[in-house]
Design goal:
The protein is mainly alpha-helical. The chain has one domain: Orthogonal Bundle (Hypothetical protein af1432), CATH 1.10.3210.10. 75% of the residues lie in helices and 0% in strands. It is built from nine helices and no strands. The longest helix has 30 residues. The termini are far apart. The relative contact order is 0.12. The mean pLDDT is 93. It binds fe (ii) ion (2 copies). One fe (ii) ion binds next to loops.
Length: 195
């Protein structure tokens, strides 16, 4: 396994997000890595690589994919979009790992992890999903209140928050996320009441 593979993936991901004008999305990825480590101190390299790279599809999203999201009544939470987000991301990171001569087993494992990071599945896929949710409340939820709420409305934002919290599997992760979730839900309620 080449040395510093995680650092290589991180540098690549940071470059892609930055080049696409999405550098605001980088802290979410870094905090997902942090929470994976908090939830499992034995997390292997594949889990850390999957954590830093899990949302790579977002800055590379095609116009056609954006249109499909807009057309779908469930938008960003539609099954179709989630599937595309997960599988495309898994493919992009796997391709990068291959170019960097990573171990084929590691590539398969990273692919497996990213391909279910939104919906979960086995224990490690659930761990990544849980870390993603905590990191979402920590780093992204505020953007939903300031940026998306005026565009998509309070109901859609509320649905997103509820989903990001309720999909958490482990009790430990739920406990960590709960105060963050409550805080943004309270803020949402205040905004709704005052509008
Ligand atoms: Fe994601
Ligand atoms: Fe994410």
């Amino acid at each position: 396994m080449p040395d510093g593979l995680f650092e290589k993936v991180k540098a690549y991901v940071v470059k892609v997000f930055t080049n696409k004008g999405s550098s605001a999305g980088i802290p979410h990825l870094e905090r997902t890595v942090y929470w994976v480590k908090q939830l499992n101190s034995d997390a292997d390299e594949a889990l850390l690589i999957a954590a830093i790279g899990h949302d790579i599809e977002r800055p590379l999203r095609t116009e056609a994919a954006i249109e499909r999201i807009k057309d779908s009544p469930k938008g960003y939470m539609s099954e179709e979009h989630l599937k595309e987000h997960q599988t495309t991301g898994a493919k992009i990171i796997a391709e990068f790992l291959k170019e960097n001569e990573a171990d084929p087993d590691l590539i398969e494992r990273v692919k497996m992890l990213i391909s279910k990071h939104e919906v979960g599945g086995n224990d490690d896929q659930n761990l990544l999903k849980d870390a993603d949710s905590i990191s979402f409340f920590e780093t992204n939820a505020e953007h939903f209140l300031t940026k998306y709420l005026p565009v998509v409305g309070a109901d859609k934002v509320k649905e997103k928050f509820e989903w990001m919290y309720s999909r958490i599997t482990s009790e430990q992760a739920k406990k960590i996320a709960r105060p963050m979730y409550k805080k943004v839900m309270d803020k949402l309620l205040t905004i709704e009441t005052n509008s």
